[in-house]
Automatic annotation (TrEMBL):
One Gene Ontology cellular component annotation held by this UniProt entry: cytosol
Stretches of the chain forming a coiled coil according to its record: none
Source organism, top-level taxon: Bacteria
Pfam families named among the record's database cross-references: Ribonuc_L-PSP (PF01042)
Protein name: RidA family protein
A GO term, aspect molecular function: deaminase activity
Family classification: Belongs to the RutC family.
Native organism: Erysipelothrix inopinata
InterPro entries: RutC-like_sf, YjgF/YER057c/UK114
Length: 128
């Protein structure tokens, strides 16, 4: 079974790099990851927003790996940010991670996250 991602040509095209529809075939298990942030191995969070984003994607990859999952299993991404995202930089990391096979995505700019030093957080839904 394979996760199916698509954007019908009969609807408005995405304003970013994501799929409008992600279909999870029956019989697959659903995985819900806690929000991932850019915390480093020493427990600190980078002061630069770009470094935090880069570390966050490394952390997502690591957490997925612990469940024997990869980017191909990701079905939905929710992005929460307290700062405006530099989409050119973000999409470089996004494209490196997803390799052009994009899940469904939601982005929200919010006032605060769980700790004052956290600027961005992503929660991931996956299936296998």
């Amino acid at each position: 079974m394979k996760i199916i991602r698509r954007t019908p040509k009969s609807v408005n095209q995405p304003v970013g790099e994501y799929a409008h529809i992600t279909k999870i075939p029956a019989g697959m298990d659903t995985y819900v990851l806690s929000g991932q942030i850019g915390v480093q191995e020493d427990g600190t969070i980078p002061t630069s927003f770009e470094a935090e984003i880069t570390q966050m994607f490394m952390n997502i990859k690591d957490v997925l790996r612990t469940a024997n999952l990869t980017h191909e299993n990701v079905t939905k991404v929710n992005i929460w940010s307290v700062e405006e995202i530099d989409w050119d930089f973000f999409y470089k990391e996004w494209n490196t991670f997803f390799e052009g096979d994009y899940p469904s995505m939601t982005i929200a700019y919010i006032k605060a996250l769980g700790l004052p030093e956290i600027k961005i957080e992503i929660d991931i839904w996956a299936a296998k």
